[in-house]
């Protein structure tokens, strides 16, 4: 503390200044403290018995003296009498072995030694003194040798910062704790210690170097009563704020690492148990907290753990209705009431056995396994650090706290969710979903509190968010006192008891105590959960959990329609059953927002198909929001949010429509003549026919039980016939003797009858689901997240950080969730008309709002019937989020399906790729082996097992069926040698009498083809086109001679591309050879650390929200670790002068260097380094080449970062500047040749397309 700060402190403490003397009077003792500025004296009340042994602390000679004076002021203010305080009694110091003086010595009211305080200036001096104390006892323990009866010693520092006193205290008890000594007879005591060394050893070994940071100056501590044995909520805790939240996870992990705690899932469970204890403590023990380590003078590990067990017992019983065994010491003593003797060995033995059972086995607070006293002590140390981390903070609050969710989410990254298919919903997504539900309509229109449920509540995020949302609505439409009744109608179900505890803890943190948490399986029945009783459901149910059905009784399994699709009870499709459970739980007109895997929309197994049928039958579709891979952090799973509404009519609409379809097929003439009778609904037939572009008069033949051959002029009916004829049933029928014995006419009649029934069965189902989807009350609002990761993060409003010390979710807009900036929702106003959540909320109520221009790229209204594909034989009710537009090339030639021009498609081998030997092994072709130009790369692989069916023949055609490469093609020819193909490829063996392979190859390079690919992709999480869909690809088919002309003209373009490719390769080689020649002529060396020649710098971090989605002419290109591809565009600049060339290198990606010519502005990120040359000794082009070469030798990579320090450590060899300049001009010419050749390659596809258009 400096003099100027000391003066400010005196004013702050209430000292009055008169004639250069600051004075403060203490009326309780009728004495003064004074500071004489003129004479630089610190004046103490010696007239009242205050003892000053030396003048060294009574002047301004040391800043430490100001700390002593402030400490004395604090003592007097606390109530210590002047006669009890002595400054600088002379004793022996620890490190110097010279005579020394303690700063402050205090006696109790009986004039016995009580406390020694050593004062230090804040910061380094204080930390150094404490370091010495920990090492060997330091000054403090040396003083004890002179005053052995002293009960406490303390290290103290203070400073005056920002108009506030900031203090640091380390208080050590010198009193023996008899409880601890009785528990272990081998431990040494302070009273038996004979010297400083032994006294320090007692503190270290017996009392584990225990100290406290409170106990002398707090408001609820009386003078002379040092140490706290009672802590209160108001005084000794403070609410959690952002700074506390930020480092808690890192601190928790650091403690675990420090003690080598490897069972991290278990450690988090212990932490949750501790939270539960703390919440019980804050609720029930506000004036005498039990969740607090009181210091070694007043506490022991056993007493602390006993208090925790009692709190945990009460929490589990009161909050989760679970009985946890707890037996107190008092109950043990009561059991011996009949024994009158004061001392009883039996009683002591039994109590010792009980203690071992109670504390050495099966603790709910075990960070490590405890089997004995040694393990107990080790675990207690960890437990103590965790408790001290939280004891001074207050968990219970009425405001939302994200820290628990963040910490839990990142902790689970270490194993739980990967093994169990669980991951937890980020709070922004919870807020978005809840903000999108029509809660105000529900609450205002209901006379009773509405019921809500999350049947996979996990950590309770949805429940807390729902409660926060309804609170102001209830207050507005009902009254404030009704809020708790609405909380009582909120239910969470969680199968895992650990998470159930978390959810209950979370509810208490938000002040939502009445929320019901049920520790149970949501797919099972529960007495508190009634079917069709919930008005609102929000959830993120688990995905892909193995054997979940085995945990349900057969009686329960049979309650699900989906069980009909299950052959193996080890089935993993738990998400499907949760969707059917939603159908069971929601009341008529109940609303839901449910997160499910994108595969729910289009997987083709029976369980997923049946799930979609249930959704279409029992729910109105309001909105589907497609979430991108950045939503859940590392999981990367693509998901959708289904915003659906339980159909409200009784009997079920699905049953009525099913009956009506049966009516149409049973007596169409009657239905037609009466216009559907009372229902007046036969217009659905004409609507269906219009939708499929089918002549209704022809379609009516099916309803009339007539098979008209004209039907087969319609493509879909021709497909039906083809599928029917290729079916196993019909092939087997034709082989039967009974069938063969029939006449041709009889055979024809039987087959036609079966064909008609086959068609009617398919059409009945299609018409039924068309009727259901056609009657969806509104169009479906489809919201699609951007595919680009950077833009997607802006769309979400957050990103995930794994940086040590700041792990968790990072909001764009500010540290707090309420500051988040996202188009999805407004955290402060659920009625913000600018947000997507408002569009969905209003859409629920039938108020379809116009989509704003800035959202039209991501949002659209689509008829539900347009999201289903009725044009395929296999009608699997896939729900497509992109409207299927008919994509066909206009041609004067007929269109043929690929399936009609080839053999049936064949999927490739699912074999492991291994290294192969060229010209010896059979090559294994995978998607990754096919270049963008349709050739194979140089990586030669073969397969472990080779089956003949996967060996390719000349002119076999391969299509990529999955992933980002879907649509890519490869034409195999014998020039590639013997090959087989892998499972993510589909082979079509073409009929070369109908179609030339090279004609098809050229056709698949056109925009017509790629538009068809985009339009026919299925799967949101993993794009896919199967063999059946590829077979439906329509291709204009001119005569073979015209195909030959097309191939010939396209070959000329291919020849130009080949020539351009050669030019590029040759030019690049000439550039490399030229630089190598220059390097061989090098005569000078230049250190990049030479600041006179080089300016080496690093860029600045660019936030995702700073990247422009629509760059303008004023935007500057941003480069990051990839110094060739722009990272994005930004409106601000970092570098001001671009009059010199620059050389860019990637700091922490794959090693790469790029030359950037002058007058070309750019913005480097903190992953991009920049070198500029100040003198004419190196040309930028040469430096870029030489730096790249040197970096390769240094083996720079992602793992071996190219930091600025390492770059500066490099030495560049170079020839004369004139030679460099001369070759640089040659490089410019060669680069122009490369660019010209690239243009030829880039325009090749367009040229081919024009050729095709000309002929077709």
UniProtKB/TrEMBL annotation:
The keyword Nuclease applies. One of its GO terms (biological process) is DNA restriction-modification system. The keyword DNA-binding applies. Keywords: DNA-binding, Endonuclease, Hydrolase, Nuclease, Restriction system. Pfam families: Methylase_S, N6_Mtase. One of its GO terms (molecular function) is DNA binding. Coiled coil: none annotated. This is Type I restriction endonuclease subunit M. Belongs to the type-I restriction system S methylase family. Belongs to the N(4)/N(6)-methyltransferase family.
